[in-house]
Amino acid sequence: FVSVLGYSRRIYVKAFTAENTEAWLNGIENAFRHFGGVPLAIVSDNTKCLVTVHNGSELKFNERYTAFCHYWNVKPVACTPYKPRSKGKCERMVRYFKENALPGRNFDSLEDLQKWIDLWLVKYSDVRKLSLVHTTGIQAETPAERFTQKERSELRTVDRVFFTNIREETRKADKCGLIRVENRLYKLPEQYSNQSVFIQITDTEIIFHDADNKVIRIDKATSFYTAKLQEKSTIKIFNDVSPDYETWGQNSLSRSLDEYAKVTGGSW
């Protein structure tokens, strides 16, 4: 996986054993981490891992990548099919990496390869001299200098858990709009009662997209549902002593139990 920032030409590279959607998304998120920020748009090629249809004016990204871009609030852009120059910056960086980082080196594992790549990015790639022949009046600079001077401030903060660390599940809301996640109940808007919803679960949030494609986030720690306590009802005790008992001892016909004991010769 090779990515490049459009202005500074800083690049990020990560090695994978196979090309699939998860590798692409993991590579993009690690690029965010490496650069310390999130761009406004991502220009990709037309790999089937990201793009379902790109034929003339018809362009459709797959559901996983679409959800990824919504999550990070970035605009997905696909290069023009069969025109490598539409992503020439990245094509040149792929060639640069292959010709400068890999020749004459052998690696015992994928981890050893990645350790070398991470070192090479900082020690060699970031400090290479750029030849900006298309920009007159500006001296050649390094990617690190251009990034620090102008580009870093344009990136948005990486302020959430990686999308690739999110579990995706389907839940059926009950008639009250409640779903159960990790043995707790969470309430969805009323229109989702008795409906199945596709949700994304992180360590801290439950995320889903409503009918208008608006992202709704539920904080797992503070927004779980608790039933209201019912008011305690007054229960009548049927074996309660009659209030007349209080006046019984004042009856002129009443006698002490000791008097009955004298007559019967017993004791009470």
Please give a structural write-up.
The structure is a single chain. This protein has 268 residues and is α+β, with helices and mostly antiparallel strands. The chain is 28% helix and 20% strand. It has two domains: 2-154, Ribonuclease H-like superfamily/Ribonuclease H (Nucleotidyltransferase, domain 5), CATH 3.30.420.10; 163-219, no CATH class. It has helices at residues 21-35, 63-72, 88-100, 110-125, 143-151, 245-248, 257-264, and strands spanning 2-4, 11-13, 41-44, 51-55, 58-61, 75-78, 167-172, 178-181, 184-187, 196-201, 205-209, 215-219. The protein has a four-stranded antiparallel β-sheet, with no helix packed on it. The chain has a two-stranded antiparallel ribbon with strand order 1-2. A hairpin with a 2-residue loop joins β4 and β5. It is elongated.
SSE topology:
Layout: E1 2-4, E2 11-13, H1 21-35, E3 41-44, E4 51-55, E5 58-61, H2 63-72, E6 75-78, H3 88-100, H4 110-125, H5 143-151, E7 167-172, E8 178-181, E9 184-187, E10 196-201, E11 205-209, E12 215-219, H6 245-248, H7 257-264
Parallel strand pairs: 3-6
Antiparallel strand pairs: 1-2, 4-5, 7-10, 8-9, 10-11, 11-12
